[in-house]
Write a structure and sequence with these properties.
heterodimer; A: 112 residues; mainly beta; B: 115 residues; globular
Chain lengths: 112, 115
């Protein structure tokens, strides 16, 4: 099965610090991982994609890593702001199929 | 572009009634996905279509659920008869073709409550 887990249901962090969210997968390595942000009452919004053969991807204050040895992806938000407070979802995808399997999400709260 | 459009935004119905959820994907996108989100189970893929053809419906909970995509700009998810355990937020998403790395664009969701 293509299981994917996000260990923390919730994470509180002080404004200005770096938030680090974890996504673990089981069984075979996904071809890629995607990270989404979801605000209350809204649908998820795509943030970043990282391929299996990529170690790291960056976009502004966001950074994603992919470690196939640990079977893990880390999602970092540097210089966090209260506006970053949301639920973050990771999803795994496979070559040849465009469906995704989502984790249950981590609710991040950035405290001013 | 208006993005993915879903209707209704909220639906309250009684057990046993038929429920139809509607989705209009982004113009030009050829993949459409239906998801269900609950606190307990997170975001679950129910079914997805490529070029209006159902590709994988293994996530559809049971025969009470059915989905159609009669054309590239419209899809429905029907529950008949509905049960209280079907209460959830149902999302529709679409993505463009050309590969399996494409991001999905989600609609605002339909919050379904079955009494």
């Amino acid at each position: 099965s293509q299981k994917i887990e996000q260990n923390s249901e919730a994470l509180n962090i002080q404004e200005g610090k770096t938030a680090t969210l974890t996504c673990n997968y089981t069984n075979y390595s996904p071809a890629y991982l995607q990270w989404y942000r979801q605000d209350p009452g809204r649908g998820p919004v795509f943030l970043l994609l990282i391929r299996e053969n990529e170690k790291e991807k960056r976009k502004e204050r966001l950074k994603v890593t992919f470690d196939t040895t640990l079977k893990q992806s880390l999602f970092h938000i540097t210089a966090s702001q209260p506006a970053d407070s949301a639920t973050y979802l990771c999803a795994r995808g496979q070559t040849g199929a465009n469906n995704l399997f989502f984790g249950t999400g981590t609710r991040l709260t950035v405290i001013p | 572009d208006a993005g993915v459009i879903q209707s209704p935004r909220h639906e309250v119905t009684e057990m046993g009634q038929e429920v139809t959820l509607r989705c209009k994907p982004i113009s030009g996108h050829n993949s459409l996905f239906w998801y269900r989100q609950t606190m307990m189970r997170g975001l679950e893929l129910l079914i997805y279509f490529n070029n209006n053809v159902p590709i994988d419906d293994s996530g559809m909970p049971e025969d009470r659920f059915s989905a159609k995509m009669p054309n590239a700009s419209f899809s429905t998810l029907k529950i008949q008869p509905s049960e209280p355990r079907d209460s959830a937020v149902y999302f529709c998403a679409s993505s463009s073709g050309g590969g399996d790395l494409n991001e999905q664009f989600f609609g605002p969701g339909t919050r379904l409550t079955v009494l």
